[in-house]
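Dear H.,

Thanks for agreeing to be a second pair of eyes. The structure we're designing against is below in token form, covering all 504 positions.
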């Protein structure tokens, strides 16, 4: 599969494919012609000694400091070095691949005034598997993701570090080994390499992909729990949800109903109104909660989709008029809000999932299941501690759901006096996504064990297939054993879509 960079928008699926290493990014043959008019305007402006932010002036609060045109190129190198102030653990490879792709796309639009060789080098990095080492902390999401992008760009000039395979080495050494010469930056190119929102956007696009897998797993987990708890399928009938036509709710109800269709467990008590006049909210209201999450994911997808075709540089070059306009398209507020909304939404998947888990483990509320799903409770604690783990992860995710987008802190001598904190919002989202995959794994583990206690009654054919899939990696719980690896194994299945590939 190839993803073509032609200066136009990309899709979320294309970004995910390149980030995962399933697709190769290639440059369209017309990109060079698209980029050169803006480059000509920048070079003309420098030749005319015009005052241009970041070209013949300093940066941020130093914008009033004039720079001699003869020093314009040196200015760009110093800019990359000074802004490479990130700290913390390196970003994962998939985020680096996404950032390289999206930075190349932005610069290829022809509104940045950089030479095609800059875009070509980012594509070469992707093709050769050379990934800049980018620390995970240091961006406030204002002029874009300045510190991360500085670290991303340093290897272009032979500085910073590159990951080549499993080895991290100085970029100059890696470039030489691959026959790539460092690029000497020209006017405005360092600035364009730093300005933009593609770091936040990468966190969002890949985070959205992960969140969709978790939302599918939540619908699956709810269906499994309903079977384990001998819940009713009546609340998922389509005529109920047609009366409250939120798209996500309708889709979630249909998905859960489809998973329950043909259940022997369900048939065993479908006319037993004494058994359960009404199921608990965590069961019968699953479509209303999960559906609201799906609608939030759809909103985030619209925001990210627009950004995947946006010009987010500064100053922006308009080849048609010859103008360079300093503005604020690099500000991350639209992304920061969407990232915070995503975090809040997926946390609710965990909130309601943990309640279903707790119900399955409690013999007073589990419709006859043994205490903590152990065949010998008392001597064994069974799955008791799985609920502790889920509770801890839910509590942590609730704290992380506090929005970063309301926490602006002025920077650059208050020249940048309002910042989005979108990068922080994205980092929180990824931590919460890790948490939620494990919370859902706990629910699925418990529900599979609970369903097996209903024998000889059988679940629906679709859910029986899921039970078998889980049992390929996790055996039934008989006597107590260490459970951490089993949680991680099922969480991995959720993150890969192994259990939900036929649900979308």
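And this is the sequence the design step returned. I haven't edited it by hand at all.
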């Amino acid at each position: 599969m190839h993803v073509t960079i032609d200066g136009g928008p990309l899709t979320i699926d294309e970004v995910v494919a390149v980030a995962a290493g399933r697709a190769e990014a290639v440059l369209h043959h017309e990109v060079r012609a698209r980029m050169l008019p803006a480059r000509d305007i920048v070079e003309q402006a420098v030749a005319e000694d015009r005052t241009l932010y970041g070209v013949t002036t300093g940066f941020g609060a130093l914008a009033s400091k004039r720079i001699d045109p003869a020093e314009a190129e040196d200015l760009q190198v110093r800019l990359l070095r000074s802004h490479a102030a990130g700290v913390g653990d390196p970003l994962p490879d998939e985020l680096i691949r996404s950032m390289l792709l999206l930075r190349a796309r932005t610069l290829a639009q022809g509104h940045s005034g950089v030479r095609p060789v800059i875009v070509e080098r980012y594509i070469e990095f992707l093709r050769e598997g050379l990934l800049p080492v980018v620390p995970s902390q240091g961006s406030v999401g204002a002029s874009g993701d300045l510190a991360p992008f500085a670290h991303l760009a340093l290897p272009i000039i032979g500085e910073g570090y590159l990951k080549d395979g499993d080895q991290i080495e100085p970029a100059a050494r890696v470039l030489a080994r691959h026959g790539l010469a460092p690029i000497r930056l020209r006017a405005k190119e360092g600035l364009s390499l730093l300005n933009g929102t593609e770091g936040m956007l990468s966190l969002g696009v890949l985070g959205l992909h992960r969140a969709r897998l978790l939302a599918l797993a939540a619908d699956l987990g709810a269906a499994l729990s309903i079977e384990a708890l001998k819940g009713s399928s009546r609340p998922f009938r389509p005529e109920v949800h047609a009366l409250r036509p939120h798209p996500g709710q309708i889709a979630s109800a249909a998905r859960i109903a489809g998973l329950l269709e043909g259940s022997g467990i369900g048939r065993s008590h479908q006319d037993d109104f004494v058994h359960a006049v009404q199921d608990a909210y965590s069961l019968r209201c699953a479509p209303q909660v999960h559906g609201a999450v799906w609608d939030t994911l759809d909103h985030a997808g619209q925001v990210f989709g627009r950004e995947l075709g946006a010009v987010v540089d500064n100053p922006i070059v308009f080849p048609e008029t010859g103008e360079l306009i300093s503005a604020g398209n690099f500000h991350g507020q639209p992304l920061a809000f969407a990232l915070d909304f995503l975090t809040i939404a997926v946390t609710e998947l965990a909130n309601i999932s943990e309640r279903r888990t707790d119900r399955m483990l409690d013999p007073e509320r589990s419709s006859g299941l043994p205490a903590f799903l152990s065949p010998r409770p008392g001597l064994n604690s069974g799955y008791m501690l799985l609920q502790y783990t889920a509770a801890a992860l839910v509590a942590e995710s609730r704290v992380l759901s506090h929005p970063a987008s309301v926490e602006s802190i002025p920077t650059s001598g208050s020249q940048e006096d309002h910042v989005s904190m979108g990068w922080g919002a994205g980092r929180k989202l990824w931590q919460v996504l890790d948490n939620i995959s494990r919370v859902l794994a706990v629910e699925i583990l418990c529900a599979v064990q609970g369903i097996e206690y209903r024998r000889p009654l059988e679940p629906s054919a679709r859910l029986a297939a899921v039970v078998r899939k889980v049992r390929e990696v996790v055996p039934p719980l008989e006597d107590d054993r260490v459970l951490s690896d089993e949680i991680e194994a099922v969480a991995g299945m959720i993150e890969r879509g192994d259990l939900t590939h036929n649900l979308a």
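Two observations from my side: The longest helix spans residues 198-228. Strands lie at 2-5, 24-27, 87-90, 130-132, 135-137, 161-164, 167-170, 316-318, 323-325.

Warmly,
E.
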